[in-house]
Predict the structure.
Amino acid sequence: MAENVEKSLKTILMVGRTGCGKTTLSEVLVHGESQYHKTQAVTRVGSIIDTPGEYIENPNYYRGIILNSYDADIVIFMNEAGEEESIFPPNFAQSMNREVIGVISKVDTGRDLETPRKNLKLAGAGKIFEVSIHDPESIAVLRDYISHEE
Ligand SMILES: Nc1nc2c(ncn2[C@@H]2O[C@H](COP(=O)(O)OP(=O)(O)OP(=O)(O)O)[C@@H](O)[C@H]2O)c(=O)[nH]1
Ligand SMILES: [Mg+2]
């Protein structure tokens, strides 16, 4: 296959607080660009299952996150740069019988990365990626990790 043909993404579940950048990153990964819109319900963006921030902010919806994880190959726990409080219960990743990775979004803002790193680890995320939609290389590294092998 030609080198410039992009590998297809695995099925991904995006979880993180309101406004951390889940939909933007999903659209950039799938379409190469994004238009802002608030997520109102669990939505599919290509093979990405995008959840509204309210799902992780309200424990009544945890079950919804866990059920959606059964359809995913990889779950992404997202924190944005500068996020001070962990929205994820400790070891929440263990509720999901799937690989869980961490993504720190908006690294272009220059805000703190240490606390998000620590909180994503506490939530049980394995590998952690630091991305900005303004840095195509950071997106390419993540995309490669969450794509099917040729
Ligand atoms: N500076 C910067 N801003 C970003 C980045 N990614 C997303 N944003 C901005 O963050 C805001 C929220 O992004 P969304 O993708 O809608 O966030 P969300 O997590 O889907 O939010 P909900 O649907 O409400 O849960 C938008 O104004 C985006 O433009 C980034 O890498 N850098
Ligand atoms: Mg959204």
Q: What stands out?
A: Residues 12-145 form a domain with the Rossmann fold fold (CATH 3.40.50.300). The chain has one domain: 12-145. The longest strand covers residues 74-80. The chain has five helices and six strands.
